[in-house]
Specification:
The complex is a heterodimer of chains A (about 775) and B (about 90). Chain A contains 21 helices and 30 strands. Chain A is an alpha+beta fold and about 775 residues long. Among the domains of chain A are: about 150 residues, Aldehyde oxidase/xanthine dehydrogenase, molybdopterin binding domain (Aldehyde Oxidoreductase, domain 4), CATH 3.30.365; about 230 residues, Aldehyde Oxidoreductase, domain 4, CATH 3.30.365.10. In chain A, the strands form 7 sheets. Chain A has a 7-stranded mixed beta sheet, sandwiched between helices. A 7-stranded mixed beta sheet of chain A has the order 9-10-18-17-16-11-30, sandwiched between helices. In chain A, strands 19-27-28-29 form a 4-stranded mixed beta sheet, with helices on both faces. In chain A, a hairpin with a 2-residue loop joins β24 and β25. Chain B is α+β, with helices and mostly antiparallel strands and about 90 residues long. Chain B has one domain: Ubiquitin-like (UB roll). Helices cover about 20% and strands about 25% of the residues of chain B. Chain B contains 2 helices and 5 strands; from the N terminus they run ββααβββ. Chain B has a 5-stranded mixed beta sheet with strand order 2-1-5-3-4, with helices on one face. In chain B, β3 and β4 form a beta hairpin. The longest helix of chain B has 11 residues. The radius of gyration of chain B is 12 Å and the shape is globular. The N and C termini of chain B lie far apart (about 35 Å). Classes of the chains: A alpha+beta (about 775), B alpha+beta (about 90). At the A-B interface, β10 and α10 of A face β3, β4 and β5 of B.
């Protein structure tokens, strides 16, 4: 294994600057093309028929009335789909997925497992007729008992969802352990002995609600078959190749028969890396011989796409009087939803990773119940695990009489320490970041009133490497066309162009950066796991090196010398001038060489497919000030500062935007977001009026502090930045509430009702309100 | 000899040992040799067709490698079988 650091310090010309976002104007003026902007000649519109029951057997589907409606062209059910040609497909280093589960989640074959589960789909001349026809599809159900609480689902005698199942393998395989749950155990040392050595032990139970990513744009797709049985798909996705691969399996096609064109994407956060509508639209298009477009309403998005897990967690952590952590015992029940594969593994892995604790047991369960199949949401599983652990860590620090940051500094892992899984921690600024928190003016600023408190939290996330491909083409005028397969969720066309400009030594304005479809670029894993700027950037740097080598050969040809005599100044001066090593006055600029490509062998271009290993990890911390209204329980966030070690910040404004966006999503998770199911197992808040995400009126300005410890696994020191900022906010808010009004919150969201319950419990009053 | 870190869920196969020693030039050789000493370990890591089990990643000397069982290792390499890492 190559242990040589890939990082090479240099003076940056482009990285660290903040150029204006090129796609910004198009996006705010409506010029950018999203999935709903696709309009094809002769196009039909599809609509899904969904189950109103959380658990039921499909006895009969009668499509006759729907088909009789003028304008209706086709109705499909699960029976229209071919048998699967693959049981399980690999998902890169993201584990593996059961294709049967993915396919059944798109359209139920025999049994529906949650409110909103698709059972049929119609195609009609316009969306209104399609909606009317969907209502005419008659489905006879045999209603089955249901479960929606993880604690109930793991009890003996619980309703069993599946007679058999492939244990969840999101990031790491669980073992089949219970009728409704796979199990994952992590352990180190002797936890029983560890607790015997502890002077102080805190044990608490927590529950957290199911939450949705809340992307602005819903799921939208358009499918068209060509006469040669090739399928073209225009869709909103974080990964065109994943959509292609899933479709090929579900429709029993060859990969080369499918072309997926990724449109501009209005948010994903982990929720748009899988198929929902695409197979249905493809099948309707096949049946009708016409293109079919399908779009979800907001209610459908909330009911039937993958949110993040609700959880029940029991946490017991012990330390010495001096604050040294000695033992931890975690019992984690994470919702998987209707099928296995929730984020129990990353939740368990990230729960304690930032601390040195010699004796640890983590007993995690991936629990199936009658809710939609869980999908990743920005550092999947880590936010829930961080909330429960950082709350207990805060309590231990208080009981030790130590400052909250000093306690964390005493126990923080540093480079070379071993994670619970044995891997060494790579160089990252754990101590530097915690010290930055403590030194920040916010940490000691007066709170300025009663019922106000300040909390901190500290978080860890892995991030991903995985496969990325790119192409670089040099034009005759010296400008560059850069193509990648990475969906642009957050401005990555710019951050990738900046790396290309740095590597090629050309002006940023000379680079046109685009996202290619699956027929036009090499395989590229989804834009997930904070990987795009890191991994696709890595591929670009390697491709750029190939371009520079080719350009040197052209220069050698022009000068009629050996290529060994040609030097390029891109690394030393940041600009691509080619210099004769024997005559420093003889030089050609990049554009001068490009102008002579035609006479020296034709176009210069290079591609590269990379799978970089040195991800480098991510850490973040928050300081949060809140004011609690003791009459209503409402929590107002007064001030918030986010800290993060991002490696080299390619575009510091974009990094700050990621930190701010993650913090706001974390605050929503903390204070107001959560699925409410009624007694019939139906989602009761399937609109953004009732599923309460934060607005600009709910949050203060999120101040950001960027730390830049280079990631040695990337030539420019870059590490992922997109996920970890969502992790610490709920714990920071909970710890702030404690300091404001003296109650330890053990539930998310910390809604006014939940805070009031806690305050009443503290005062010995009986709870008069049942909190959802 | 390389040091191999055994996940908690597989430590019943190594008699509770969290770190074991083995030699080999690739991860596959390492696994084969370990299986001779700790029967069942190979089956826990690799499929019948010889490929790494889905969801299991291999880390060598601090880096998760996409080469899996094909990854070459050095005399004193540090090897972990770990949850593969992705994200949202």
């Amino acid at each position: 294994m190559n242990m040589e650091p890939e990082y090479k310090p240099r003076k940056w010309r482009v990285l660290g600057t903040t150029p204006v976002r090129r796609d910004g104007i198009d996006k705010v003026t409506g010029q950018a093309k999203f999935g709903d902007d696709v309009h094809l000649p002769d196009m039909l519109h599809g609509k899904v028929v969904r189950s109103p029951h959380p658990h039921a057997r499909i006895k009969r589907i009668d499509i006759s009335k729907a088909m009789a409606l003028p304008g209706v062209k086709a109705v499909i059910t699960g029976a229209d789909f071919p048998p699967l040609n693959q049981a399980v497909v690999a998902a890169g280093e993201g584990g593996s997925v059961s294709m049967q589960d993915i396919a059944d989640n798109c359209i139920a074959k025999h049994t529906v497992f949650y409110d909103g589960h698709a059972v049929a789909a119609v195609a009609a001349e316009n969306p209104h007729v399609a909606e009317e026809a969907a209502a005419l599809v008659e489905v006879e159900y045999e209603i089955l008992p249901f479960i929606q609480d993880v604690r109930e689902a793991v009890k003996d005698g619980a309703v069993v969802l599946h007679d058999d199942y492939v244990p969840g393998a999101f990031l790491f395989p669980t073992q089949k352990a219970l009728p409704n749950a796979g199990r994952l155990q992590l352990a180190a040392g002797d936890v029983e002995q560890g607790f015997k050595e502890a002077d102080i032990v805190v044990e608490r139970e927590f529950t957290t609600a199911t939450v949705h990513q809340g992307y602005i744009e819903s799921h939208i797709t358009t499918c068209r078959w060509d006469s040669d049985q090739h399928l073209t798909v225009w869709t909103s996705t974080q990964g065109a190749f994943a959509i292609r691969d899933f479709l090929a399996s579900i429709l029993n096609l060859q990969l080369s028969q499918i072309r997926v064109i990724p449109m501009e994407i209005g948010g994903g956060f982990g929720g748009k890396d899988v198929v929902y509508l695409d197979p249905l639209a493809a099948m309707l298009a096949k049946k009708t011989g016409r293109p079919v477009k399908m779009a979800m309403t907001r209610a459908e998005v909330l009911k039937a796409t993958g949110p993040s897990s609700g959880t029940y967690c029991r946490v017991k952590i012990g330390c010495k009087k001096d604050g040294t952590l000695v033992a931890a015992d975690l019992y984690l029940l994470f919702e998987a939803g209707a099928y296995p594969g929730g984020p129990i593994a990353p939740g368990a892995l990230c729960a304690l990773t930032r601390y040195n604790i010699p004796n640890v047991v983590i007993d995690g369960y991936d629990v199936m119940l009658n809710k939609p199949k869980i999908k990743p949401y920005r550092a999947p599983g880590a936010t829930q695990a961080n909330f429960v652990v950082e709350t207990v860590i805060d309590e231990l620090a208080e009981k030790c009489g130590l400052d909250a940051i000093d306690f964390r500094l005493k126990n923080a892992t540093v480079a070379g320490d071993r994670l619970i899984i044995g891997m060494p921690v790579p160089p990252i600024g754990t101590v530097e970041m915690l010290q930055a928190v403590k030194k920040h003016p916010h940490y000691t600023a007066p709170l300025g009133g009663p019922n106000r408190g300040r909390g901190v939290a500290y978080a860890f996330w892995f991030g991903a490497g995985l496969t990325s491909s790119c192409e670089i083409h040099v034009n005759a005028d010296g400008t560059i066309n850069l193509a990648t397969g990475s969906a642009d969720l957050s401005g990555t066309r710019m951050t990738l162009a900046m790396q290309a400009a740095e590597a090629l030594g050309v002006p940023l304005d000379d680079i046109s950066s685009s996202v290619s479809d699956t027929d036009s670029i090499g395989y590229t894993f989804q834009s997930v796991g904070s990987r795009t700027t890191f991994a696709t950037g890595y591929a670009i740097i390697k491709a750029a090196e190939k371009v520079i080598e080719q350009m040197k050969q052209r220069v050698a040809m022009i000068w009629e010398t050996d290529v060994a005599n040609v030097d390029c100044t891109v690394e030393s001066a940041g600009v691509a001038d080619f210099v004769d090593r024997n005559d420093p006055h003889r030089r050609l600029h990049f554009k001068q060489v490009a102008a002579r490509m035609d006479e020296t062998g034709g176009p210069v271009s290079a591609d590269y497919t990379a799978n970089p290993h040195g991800v480098g990890f991510q850490i973040a911390a928050n300081i949060c000030d809140v004011e609690v209204d003791p009459e209503t329980g409402k929590v107002q966030v007064l001030r918030f500062t986010a800290f993060q070690d991002v490696g080299k910040a390619v575009h510091p404004d974009y990094v700050a935007g990621q930190m701010q966006g993650g913090a706001v999503q974390g605050l929503g998770w903390a204070l107001s977001e959560g699925y409410w199911y009624n007694k019939d197992g139906r989602l009761a808040n399937s609109s953004l009026l009732d599923y309460r995400m934060p607005t600009s009126l709910d949050v203060p300005m999120i101040d950001t502090v960027i730390l830049e410890t280079p990631n040695l696994g990337h030539p420019y020191g870059i590490r992922g930045a997109g996920e970890v900022p969502i992790v610490p906010p709920p714990a920071a808010v909970a710890n702030a509430i404690y300091r404001a009004v003296g109650v330890r919150m053990t539930t998310l969201p910390m809604s006014p009702g939940a805070v009031l319950e806690a305050l009443w419990a503290k005062e010995g009053k009986p709870a008069s309100v049942k909190v959802a | 000899m390389a040091s191999v870190w055994i996940p908690a869920t597989m430590q019943h196969l190594t008699g509770g040992e969290a770190v074991v020693q083995a030699s080999g030039s690739t991860v596959r050789e390492l696994v084969n040799r370990l299986d001779e000493v700790y029967p069942g370990l190979k089956a826990a890591i690799a499929q019948d067709d010889g490929r790494l089990r889905p969801g299991v990643a291999v880390a060598v000397d601090g880096y998760i490698t996409s080469l899996g069982l094909f990854q070459r290792i050095a005399e004193r390499s540090d090897v972990q079988f770990v949850p593969a890492i992705g994200g949202g």
